[in-house]
Amino acid sequence: MSLEKFMNEAISPWMKEEGPDSDIVMSSRIRLARNFEDIPFPIIANKDELEEILAMMKNNFQQKSFKNYHDLEFVKMIDLKTIEKRVLVEKHLISPHLAEKSDLGAVLISENEQVSIMVNEEDHLRVQLYFPGFQLEQALEHAFEMDDWLEEKIDFAFDENRGYLTSCPTNVGTGLRASVMMHLPALAITQKINRMIPAINQLGLVVRGIYGEGSEALGNIFQISNQVTLGRSENDIINDLKSVVQKLIEQERKARQMLGDQRAVQLEDRIFRSYGVLEHSRIIESKETAKCLSDVRLGIDMGYITNVSRTILNELMILTQPGFLQQYAKESLSPQDRDVLRASLIRERLNLENSY
């Protein structure tokens, strides 16, 4: 396996699979924050200490496999070009924060890209594990097993009263951040999502955009996750999140049914207008692309569009991001050049799909 594989394939292998409720829940993620026992947190550690972490992770885990997660590839941020780092962010393999730490950060990525272990981000380790669809409990089980596997080589910073110690106080305790990525177009179209977000926040959960904290909910894709870990067990966190997500799934299905019953012509017109834009545009910006892809995905899920697969939409959502477009072109592109290439790639991909 090589870095080139991560750069050139828009969709991660695990994303080609479908899980429970995958028409609404795109993915489930478990992230564990962990720190080495006797080394200061990255925010105050010196260069030698952070390099010690990098060496330890590379020597012990490079090209190692665990369960179905084979051949972990160790990638240092300093070895990547700016565009390459952006691609890894767009594929959710690293965070924007890690991408900015170009000198002393790294990531271990499994061959199927279902596991990534960020090194020297806000904490020494941020272990991420993804599952398709609504599979929080399965993801948590695998994350626990991977945590045990790492602990065979690492002594983590842990306090009997406080739990796992982390750079950010909100992660102290379990160090667990559970999240789901949801496509909620009907709730957005009916504007019900605007009333739901404050209520969700009051339950100790947070609603963010597709790339996490500070990002916009492009394409009606929302990330729902827990905010606090201290004083909560892992099962408590998962159960609270599951309860809210199940309610959102129920409300999204009701909103889709209502749109189909009461505004069918308007909905169908919206869907096929967006499909036409994607199929025929010569220039298209990223925000318009996300909106159109969301409409077309809704059309697929509701049976209006039958000649395009949901997987193609997942692929295009990543393929049309600025970093991936420039990686594809093998050069830096101006915003207008990206808009032209984006439109061309979408037309090419849809035509290929329709030719089967």
UniProtKB/TrEMBL annotation:
Keywords: Allosteric enzyme, ATP-binding, Kinase, Nucleotide-binding, Transferase. Residues 24-255 form the Phosphagen kinase C-terminal domain. GO terms for biological process: phosphocreatine biosynthetic process. InterPro entries: Arg_Kinase, ATP-guanido_PTrfase, ATP-guanido_PTrfase_AS, ATP-guanido_PTrfase_cat, Gln_synth/guanido_kin_cat_dom. One of its GO terms (cellular component) is extracellular space. The keyword Nucleotide-binding applies. It comes from the Bacteria. GO terms for molecular function: ATP binding; creatine kinase activity; protein arginine kinase activity. The keyword DNA-binding does not apply. ATP binds at residues 27-31, 92, 126, 177-181, 208-213. A motif (RDXXRA motif of the pArg binding pocket involved in allosteric regulation) lies at residues 338-343. Appears to be allosterically activated by the binding of pArg-containing polypeptides to the pArg-binding pocket localized in the C-terminal domain of McsB. Gene3D superfamilies: Glutamine synthetase/guanido kinase, catalytic domain (3.30.590.10). Its EC number is 2.7.14.1. It catalyses: L-arginyl-[protein] + ATP = N(omega)-phospho-L-arginyl-[protein] + ADP + H(+). Belongs to the ATP:guanido phosphotransferase family. Catalyzes the specific phosphorylation of arginine residues in a large number of proteins. Is part of the bacterial stress response system. Protein arginine phosphorylation has a physiologically important role and is involved in the regulation of many critical cellular processes, such as protein homeostasis, motility, competence, and stringent and stress responses, by regulating gene expression and protein activity. HAMAP family: Prot_Arg_kinase (MF_00602). This is Protein-arginine kinase. It comes from Aquibacillus koreensis.
